[in-house]
Design brief:
about 350 residues, alpha/beta, Rossmann fold, three-stranded mixed β-sheet, 12 helices, globular, binds nicotinamide-adenine-dinucleotide, binds 2'deoxy-thymidine-5'-diphospho-alpha-D-glucose
């Protein structure tokens, strides 16, 4: 099969490319990525010369370019990871989120309609369900939990999900959607909580925890997410939504302390700063459906995954040091410079 993977030079997309090439050497992977600040071609270096792999630098909003590629490659499956993915950036500048996450999704699906595919899979997020209260551990997100978004990012992802469902109902496009909780693992851009805290701790810089750090996220090792998507796009039911999560809820402050403990750094590096606007309190996924229908279960326990991840950042300093040497410095100043310290 020919499989187009968009956003394959980013965090989850690159891990998915590696997973597919290893698990399904009979398939061909065509990676489409615009190489925004979050995309990194060097991540894909180990597979760039693999004959089962092709990299194409292309914006998913570029209709002509996408149609031309579909004509050339005649893909069987399209998996859409490409997105603007960072909530804080969406709060500063929503427009690009609407363009890539909504318009880009519609361009890809128009190409799927025009050229014919067996499956279009949309990689979505648990953030489309909004948040849950901190004092109701009995509540979880189910596939039929109403959409109730908080940030421009989650709203753009929810809009894309609605479009995907509309293309299924109106045009009969064979689609599926997955909504996953927070991922962690190798190659995550150091603007996200875990890699940012690792990088700062290693440089003995302050670790900026939003508010009191009591917000809860449900963490999943990235390879478990990749495995779930692989199952859904090959064996999942057309038209269905699948939640993906590891039943692993953690408070931000506990994650930060765990990272400091592992690196042997003092808690005095923690700095509580102004909270994120509209900050979602808690995410928690019920993954019963994907377990019952496709037999999926997470394989990496958080205690092992987090060690593996921290070790990866220690062993691959060049990868993230290259990133934080560039434009990232301006991003960091702009994003964190205006935050006030609210205690430590
Ligand atoms: P990322 O920001 O690390 O990577 C995004 C990739 O998309 C980058 O390589 C970037 O260059 C590319 N891209 C951006 N705009 C593009 C465009 N217009 N055309 C082509 N390529 C473009 O993101 P990630 O964390 O790997 O997330 C991947 C997907 O998974 C996103 O759709 C995100 O919403 C979803 N998701 C992420 C998480 C998470 O915890 N990171 C959890 C659930 C779902
Ligand atoms: O739940 C899935 C989502 O997880 C994905 O859809 C998003 O693409 C992905 O970015 C992630 O969103 P979050 O907003 O949960 O991830 P982030 O790493 O930005 O933040 C995790 C938590 O840590 C959140 O409560 C905010 C907090 N935080 C984050 C940063 C960057 C801090 O306290 N300090 C920070 O500097």
């Amino acid at each position: 099969m020919n499989i187009i993977v968009t956003g394959g030079a980013g965090f989850i997309g690159s891990n998915f490319v590696f997973y597919e090439l290893k698990q399904h050497p009979e398939d061909r992977i065509i990676c489409v990525d615009k190489l925004t600040y979050a995309g990194n071609l060097s991540t894909l270096e180990p597979v760039l010369h693999n004959p089962a792999f092709r990299f194409v630098k292309l914006d998913i909003c570029d209709r002509d370019g996408i149609y031309k590629l579909f004509e050339e490659e005649k893909p069987d499956i399209v998996v859409n990871f490409a997105a603007e993915s960072h909530v804080d950036r969406s709060i500063e500048n929503p427009t690009i989120f609407l363009e890539t996450n909504i318009i880009g999704t519609s361009v890809l699906m128009d190409a799927c309609r025009k050229y014919g595919i067996t499956r279009y899979h949309q990689v979505s997020t648990d953030e489309v369900y909004g948040d849950l209260p901190l004092d109701r551990p009995d509540l979880l997100f189910h596939e039929d939990t109403p959409i109730h978004t908080s940030s421009p990012y989650s709203t753009s992802k929810a809009s894309a999900d609605l479009l995907v469902q509309a293309y299924h109902r109106t045009y009969g496009l064979p689609v599926s959607i997955s909504r996953c909780s927070n991922n962690y693992g190798p190659y995550q851009f150091p603007e996200k909580l875990i890699p940012l805290m690792i990088a700062n701790a290693l440089a003995d810089k302050k670790l900026p925890v939003y508010g009191e750090g009591l917000n809860v996220r449900d963490w999943l090792y990235v390879e478990d997410h990749c495995k779930a998507i692989d199952l859904i796009m090959r064996k999942g039911t057309v038209g269905e939504i699948y939640n993906i999560g590891g039943h692993n809820e953690m408070r931000n402050i506990d994650i930060v302390k765990l990272i400091l403990d592992y690196l042997g750094k003092p808690y005095s590096l923690i700095e509580h700063v102004t909270d994120r606007k509209g900050h979602d309190r808690r995410y928690a996924i019920d993954p019963t459906k994907i377990h019952n229908e496709l037999g999926w279960l997470p394989e990496t326990m958080f205690k092992d995954g987090i060690k593996k991840t921290i070790q990866w950042y220690l062993d691959n300093k060049e990868w993230w040091e290259n990133i934080i040497r560039g434009d990232y410095q301006n991003y960091y100043k702009e994003m964190y410079g205006k935050k006030e310290v609210i205690g430590s």
